[in-house]
């Protein structure tokens, strides 16, 4: 019979009446017939799959509205799974195979119920032979004592699910058994309805109501399309392997699935078959969900729907800064074209003689174009666009063999495609328990997963949402792999790691929309948090405290309603290569003993400051890109001791780096709230003091400093002052490029201790180069201060100005207006228009061995000016070079030494890595700190 003799539509109508065995035979006729049978997937195969009394919809219970990719394939997988309990025969040798088949063929069917040959379940189990089928007719079967199952049998309920109910307690003492289409309710003497300690049991399409299923290793269990309601649960003790597939757990009083103890060494016959089933599922991932990262752009929509501008002109608009940062104004500057006696032609000829080239200073490589014509991040007027992209799970596994091994492993209990809802807990592991959770949904629970006491968890592609406490909770040295999960809208942290827990990898997850933090690591918790999307949480995206010490790497942390990452209460951690953007508070917030390592992060487009180092904050902050934040780039306050090395702090609306004195007393209440509620899980209070490392241990691996250190950073194109200091403790500022900020390059407004500025390049800033206000102590040594919009150095405090190059600034080179102890030694100064060195008012100063070059030929200002009647100022051995009337005179240059600062790019580093390695040897550094004071603080800077 040829297929082509009839229309295909007609064949499909005819074939729709065939039962399953006949459809299988038709598939074997020829390729044309096979294609015809396969085309019935949405009709006959769907009808057969849904009509099977042993199963439900393939995507039940979590997604019954979604059709499977193939109904035929779903029916096939179901048929394979239902026969697992019969696979314990001898090996498939020829003679053994015949015996195996004959035994199945000869099995009997026993009918139990009113009017049948057997009336009770107990009597049926007494007479049934191995592998017989016991069919229970509709009714309620209650036994007054425990039933012992000594031979392999199959118990099947007749009719629709719910028509056969068992009020029994069954103990299995045989190698295998299967129960199908039954409702289990506890008997009067025990809540345990079924238990086994060495055999394999399979449940298909059963309901458990207020009952407990108990399996002890080396026993195994396979439950498919079962419902556990009204406090029902599965309790697994030392199981080697069990499988819970497509089950519904609801209304539990404790955990729905509890796993205790390490898997026993002995295995039963079913383990290899269950392993094959789990691998089949793992190779066919659930479709319909995407973990693709959002596109990250360097512009954002404003409230009106327009794009935010990213240039320096944009970030400065609408910014309100204190009056103190703009000490230079139009009244202090000369006109661009002052009235002189020489013609314009003569001035043009003189330009080449009086302008001193200073572009070849030690940090000039940060300003020059690369070979491809692009500008480095230190000098580009546009923010960087080189933000890191998220890695896929496969990319992460390829570089982490241990995580790859976990992802491929089959652990003690495999829970897949199940729904946990409306109860206290989902899955609880303790005492070296092991579990693999794949494709499940956890919702409206107190907690979804709790893993404690050296247990191991593997969670892949689960959804955890709307839990009243933390979604996933690990403590007491628990570990495992948590990947590609969607964890959202939980009442506490999405992921809570504490008490020495160390999940090997937490990667490629979406952790979002939580009512508290996204990830919390505390109490000596560790772990690796990599390549996740953490967003839209009401508190910190990642919160590290109480000696938590995770690795946080390669994540996208964005649009949080608090800080992106908060490190408080002696928290530590290594935070690298993250994209932290558009958070309401600081991108990274470090306070109260927090001491992390921050490297190579991109912290941008925040609605507050980029990095906040609060009271008693520490940490190594190195090689980060901090840009386009509405507050400051970096905000340091309250006796903090950070090390800022090699960061790019650019295009922020306010200060690039602000060092303030501030007490956080106004935030004590909020700190207490955050410090308590996240530490207590369901009313449980832990004694965290016993977990804290000693201070010596914590800092043994880090170079010790006694003061804050700002070294080798680029502070460019910020909307106000590049570096703003209002502190009462010493501060070291070395080898930084401070370029093109709208305000002054460096302003020292308050500094009772010494602020040391050494070997910095300060150029092209909108106002002055360096401003030191009255009663401040500062030392300027070896800096290059070039082409700023007002005075090069405006100094009103006490200290030293030694061996600096101050060239091309529009106001005075060095202006001293007050002070009682000032030394101006061995500087090279050329103003563009004003005085070279001006001493105004009654100043006690010592001005010696300075070299002054005449500025613009048309200026009327003297190079060395001192107000009359100043008896406290000593001028000695200063040299003045004036313009030569000869056009053949050589041009002025800075040599012996060349233009300052005298630092160079380290060998072997690319421009993208500079200036993280630049600096001065530690033997020449003098440490500094930052203290409490009186500034009101950044309007954006707040603790969690």
UniProtKB/TrEMBL annotation:
Compositionally biased tracts (Polar residues): 282-293
Pathway: Protein modification; protein ubiquitination
Annotated region (Disordered), positions in chain: 282-351
Tagged with keyword Repeat: yes
Any one biological process term the GO annotation gives: regulation of apoptotic process
CDD domains listed in its UniProt record: F-box_FBXO10
InterPro entries in alphabetical order: Beta_helix, Carb-bd_sugar_hydrolysis-dom, F-box-like_dom_sf, F-box_dom, NosD_dom, Para_beta_helix_rpt-2, PbH1, Pectin_lyas_fold
Record's keyword terms, sorted: Repeat, Ubl conjugation pathway
Domain F-box intervals: 1-48
Name the UniProt record assigns to this protein: F-box protein 10
């Amino acid at each position: 019979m040829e297929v082509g003799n009839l229309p295909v539509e007609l064949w499909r109508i005819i074939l729709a009446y065939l039962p399953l065995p006949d459809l299988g035979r038709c598939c074997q006729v020829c390729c044309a017939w096979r294609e015809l049978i396969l085309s019935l997937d949405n009709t006959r195969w769907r009808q057969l799959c849904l009509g099977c009394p042993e199963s439900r919809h393939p995507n039940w219970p979590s997604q019954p509205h979604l059709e499977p990719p193939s109904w035929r394939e779903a029916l096939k997988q179901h048929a394979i799974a239902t026969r697992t309990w019969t696979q314990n025969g001898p090996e498939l040798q020829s003679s053994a195979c015949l015996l195996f088949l004959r035994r199945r063929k000869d099995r009997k069917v026993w009918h139990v119920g009113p009017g049948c040959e057997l009336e009770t379940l107990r009597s049926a189990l007494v007479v049934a032979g191995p592998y017989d089928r016991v069919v229970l007719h509709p009714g309620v079967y209650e036994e007054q004592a425990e039933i012992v199952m000594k031979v392999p049998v199959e118990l099947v309920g007749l009719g629709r699910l719910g028509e056969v109910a068992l009020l029994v307690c069954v103990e299995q003492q045989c190698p295998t058994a299967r129960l199908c289409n039954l409702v289990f309710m506890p008997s009067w003497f025990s809540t345990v309805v079924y238990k086994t300690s060495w055999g394999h049991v399979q449940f298909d399409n059963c309901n458990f109501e207020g009952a407990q299923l108990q399996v002890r290793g080396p026993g195994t269990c396979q439950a498919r399309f079962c419902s556990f309601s009204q406090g029902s649960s599965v309790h697994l003790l030392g199981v080697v392997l069990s499988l819970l597939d497509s089950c519904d757990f609801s209304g539990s009083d404790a955990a729905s699935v509890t796993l205790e103890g390490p898997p026993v060494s002995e295995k039963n016959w079913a383990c290899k078959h269950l392993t094959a089933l789990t691998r089949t599922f793992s190779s066919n991932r659930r479709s319909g969900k995407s973990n693709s990262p959002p596109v990250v752009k360097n512009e954002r929509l404003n409230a009106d729907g327009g794009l935010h501008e990213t240039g320096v002109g944009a970030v400065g608009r609408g910014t309100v800064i204190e009056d103190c940062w703009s000490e230079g104004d139009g009244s202090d500057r000369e006109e661009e074209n002052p009235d002189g006696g020489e013609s314009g032609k003569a001035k043009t000829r003189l330009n080449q003689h009086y302008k001193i080239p200073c572009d070849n200073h030690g940090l000039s490589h940060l300003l020059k174009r690369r070979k491809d014509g692009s500008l480095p991040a230190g000098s580009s007027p546009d923010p960087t666009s080189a933000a890191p992209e998220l890695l896929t799970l496969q990319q992460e596994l390829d570089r982490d063999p241990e995580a790859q091994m976990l992802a491929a492993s089959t652990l003690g209990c495999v829970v897949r495609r199940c729904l946990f809802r409306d109860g206290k807990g989902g899955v609880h592991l303790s005492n070296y328990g092991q579990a693999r959770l794949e494709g499940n949904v956890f919702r409206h629970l107190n907690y979804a997963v709790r893993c404690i006491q050296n247990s191991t968890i593997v969670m892949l592609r689960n959804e955890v949402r709307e839990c009243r406490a933390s979604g996933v909770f690990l403590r007491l040295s628990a570990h495992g792999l948590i990947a590609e999960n969607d964890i959202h809208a939980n009442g506490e942290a999405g992921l809570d790691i504490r008490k020495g827990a160390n999940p090997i990898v937490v990667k490629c997850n979406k952790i979002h929309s939580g009512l508290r933090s996204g990830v919390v690591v505390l109490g000596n918790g560790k772990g690796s948090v990599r390549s996740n999307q953490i967003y839209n949480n009401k508190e910190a995206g990642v919160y590290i405290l109480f000696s938590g010490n995770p690795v946080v790497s390669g994540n996208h942390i964005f649009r949080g309603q608090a800080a992106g990452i908060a490190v408080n209460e002696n928290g530590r951690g290594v935070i690298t290569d993250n994209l932290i953007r558009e958070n309401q508070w600081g991108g990274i917030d470090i306070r109260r003993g927090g001491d992390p390592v921050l490297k190579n992060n991109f912290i941008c487009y925040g609605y507050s400051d980029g990095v906040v180092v609060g009271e008693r904050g520490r940490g190594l902050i190195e090689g980060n890109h901090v840009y386009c934040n509405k507050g400051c780039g970096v905000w340091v306050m309250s006796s903090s001791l950070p090390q800022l090395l090699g960061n790019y702090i650019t295009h922020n609306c306010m200060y690039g780096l602000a060092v303030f004195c501030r007490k956080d007393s106004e935030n004590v209440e909020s700190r207490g709230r955050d410090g308590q509620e996240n530490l207590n899980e369901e009313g449980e209070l832990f004694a965290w003091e016993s977990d804290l490392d000693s201070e010596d241990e914590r800092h043994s691996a880090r170079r010790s400093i006694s003061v804050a250190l700002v070294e080798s950073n680029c502070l460019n194109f910020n909307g106000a002052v590049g570096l703003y200091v209002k502190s009462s403790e010493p501060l070291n500022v070395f080898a930084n490029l401070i370029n093109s900020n709208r305000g002054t390059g460096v302003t020292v407004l308050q500094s009772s201790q010494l602020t040391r500025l050494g070997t910095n390049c300060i150029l092209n800033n909108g106002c002055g180069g360096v401003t030191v206000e009255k009663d401040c102590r500062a030392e300027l040594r070896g800096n290059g201060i070039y082409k700023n919009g007002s005075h090069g150095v405006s100094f009103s405090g006490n200290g030293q100005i030694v061996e600096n190059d101050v060239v091309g600034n529009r106001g005075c080179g060095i202006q001293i207006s007050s002070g009682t102890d000032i030394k101006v030694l061995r500087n090279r100064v050329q103003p563009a228009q004003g005085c070279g060195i001006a001493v105004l008012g009654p100043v006690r100063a010592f001005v010696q061995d300075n070299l002054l070059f005449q500025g613009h030929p048309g200026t009327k200002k003297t190079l060395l000016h001192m107000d009359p009647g100043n008896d406290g100022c000593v001028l000695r051995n200063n040299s003045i070079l004036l313009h030569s009337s000869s056009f053949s005179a050589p041009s002025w240059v800075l040599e012996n030494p060349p233009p300052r600062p005298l630092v160079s790019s380290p060998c072997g580093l690319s421009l993208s890595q500079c200036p993280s390695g630049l600096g001065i040897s530690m033997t020449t550094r003098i440490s500094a700190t930052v203290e409490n004071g009186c500034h009101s603080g950044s309007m954006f800077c707040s603790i969690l």
